[in-house]
Specification:
Elements lengths: L1 H35 L3 H27 L12 H30 L10 H28 L2 H29 L4 H28 L6 H12 L6 E10 L2 E9 L6 H18 L3 E9 L17 H16 L5 E8 L2 E8 L2 H9 L3 H12 L5 E7 L4
Parallel strand pairs: 2-3, 5-6
Antiparallel strand pairs: 1-2, 4-5
Helix pairs in contact: 1-2, 1-4, 2-3, 2-5, 3-5, 3-6, 4-5, 5-6, 9-11
């Protein structure tokens, strides 16, 4: 699991670093040409590109932290750091959208018209659009492949730079054509789009932080896979949540009541393997083995049946009354919330005692049932004698 997380982190870091290099080149280029071509919009767009470097550095730092192996302080892993990073990046997008909208509205109501830019600004804006659109598509593809909301968020951040470059392109073209207010109006629309993208990312990440369940169709797929495992009678108390790109599951698996604890645990381990083999984003799976459907009792259910020691004391006393002494035997208990079934595997000593008392195995079994029937927890008993 950790090796897969390390591979995912390296792939995410690689695409982020490529984007950081592109942001640096485009940011410096747009600022220089903006100064030469008399375009304040292009200068602002260049500063916007350089500001993306801060988010790129933040993404790399969060990726390295979120993909660390579990430790004593974070036994579930560090996947939540990726979610928190996505929230922070979404907030940045909302802030960028708000700042763009404010500046654009200010331009619409400005008393003095800004100076007209020259054609090199058009070329720089077009180059920025192509570069940022390419890195957006490349980063988005990698983010979806890695199922990383953080990388997807950073991809959309790159798209905001491409959109702002489109605004610059329209602003330059409109100003050169005499329609000076066109750039401000387009910037307002883009700002609203950027803000919505940021808000959606924040909302999605917050639902993860408050442990919202997986979508119903996904849960149904998981349940069907669990029920397909041999030995699983039913699955209930099924809980799911996300941590980063990993799905965390908890469930109660109902198996046949007379299975051994070892076989029940094997069935549970088999369920985990089947889930992780079919779904590549399954992280921790916690299962509880049930021999009955305990969901009807609710979360406050506590067992009120007697312990093994108490049951053995009742059985020993009954054996002594019937046989005159207490022979060796193996006792197997099958608990239900309302009763207990007993299996008694007798030792060879029983044959000698039965011959002394003149009882058959069936008669002994019937007397044991009769004397234990007054106990409100007793339902049935089976006596198994070894061959003579």
């Amino acid at each position: 699991m950790q090796e897969q997380l390390d591979q995912r982190r390296r792939a995410a870091e690689r695409v982020t670093i490529i984007g950081a290099v592109l942001d640096t080149v485009l940011g410096v280029l747009k600022i220089l040409i903006g100064v030469i071509a008399n375009s304040s919009a292009l200068i602002a767009d260049g500063i916007h590109s350089l500001s993306d470097l801060l988010t790129d550095f933040m993404v790399v730092a969060v990726l390295r932290l979120s993909h660390r192996a579990p430790d004593d302080s974070h036994p579930w892993g560090h996947g939540r750091f990726e979610t928190v990073g996505t929230v922070a990046l979404g907030v940045v997008l909302v802030g960028v959208g708000g700042a763009m909208a404010y500046d654009s509205v200010s331009l619409l109501f400005a008393v003095e018209h800004p100076p007209l830019p020259t054609w090199p600004a058009l070329l720089a804006a077009a180059l920025s659009i192509v570069g940022k659109e390419w890195i957006f598509r490349y980063t988005l593809k990698i983010g979806k492949k890695l199922q990383s909301d953080l990388i997807i968020a950073n991809a959309w951040h790159s798209r905001t730079d491409a959109l702002s470059s489109i605004v610059v392109l329209l602003a330059v073209a409109g100003a050169m054509a005499g329609v000076w207010w066109l750039d401000a109006l387009a910037a307002v629309l883009v700002a609203l789009l950027v803000g919505k993208i940021g808000w959606d990312l924040v909302a999605k990440s917050v639902t993860e932080l408050v442990d919202t369940a997986l979508p119903e169709d996904r849960v149904e797929e998981l349940r069907e896979q669990v029920l397909s495992v041999d030995g699983v009678i039913n699955v209930h108390s099924f809980k799911s949540r996300l941590m980063g790109n990993q799905s965390l599951l908890e469930m109660h698996l109902q198996v046949a009541p007379h299975l051994s604890a070892a076989e029940g645990h094997y069935i549970g381990d088999n369920v985990v393997c089947k889930l992780q083999n079919r779904f590549d984003n399954i992280g921790h799976v916690i299962f509880h083995i049930d021999t009955y459907d305990d969901e009807i009792h609710g979360d406050v259910f506590c067992p009120v049946m007697p312990s093994r020691r108490e049951v053995s004391q009742h059985l020993d006393a009954t054996m002594s009354r019937i046989l005159g002494e207490n022979p060796d035997y193996e006792l197997i208990l099958y608990y239900h919330p309302e009763f207990i079934d007993l299996d008694i595997k007798a030792s060879p000593q029983f044959h000698q005692l039965l011959s002394h008392t003149g009882l058959s195995a069936r008669e002994l079994e019937e007397q044991l049932r009769e004397q234990l029937s007054s106990l409100n927890w007793f339902r049935k008993l089976s006596l198994w004698l070894p061959p003579q």
